[in-house]
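The instructor's notes for this session suggest beginning with a concrete chain rather than abstract definitions. Hand out the sequence below and ask the class to guess, before any prediction is shown, which regions might be ordered.
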Amino acid sequence: MKASELRIGNLVNGPKQNAAYPVIEISELSVRIQFDNGNDWYGRDQLHGIPLTEEWLLKFGFEDHKVFDNLIGYKKNEVEIHVYEELFCLANNEYAKSLNYLHQLQNLYFALTGEELTIKETV
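After discussion, reveal the predicted structure:
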């Protein structure tokens, strides 16, 4: 992963794939991630983006938002994500940005709203 892609708090796949680990520190060559029982440093080549899914959108509090008949959408505050054939796109009237990974969504959401995405508590 490129250094410019990550921020503190981003969730990434670490040494154990299919697990979301928060980034807690970033250096020029490595990234420290938090585990349940501690933390450790890893080279950027050891970390991978978490593929963006509709499940992640719901965990972060996005809600169903009908866009068109053939286009699924999700919305949180004024941020809209459109989904077409497993392609996720942050869009409004002025621009569209394709998203592949969870950390990309986290970064764009923060840039647009000034707020961090947090996992919605389940009741």
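Then share the key points. The first helix runs from residue 54 to 59. The longest strand covers residues 20-26.
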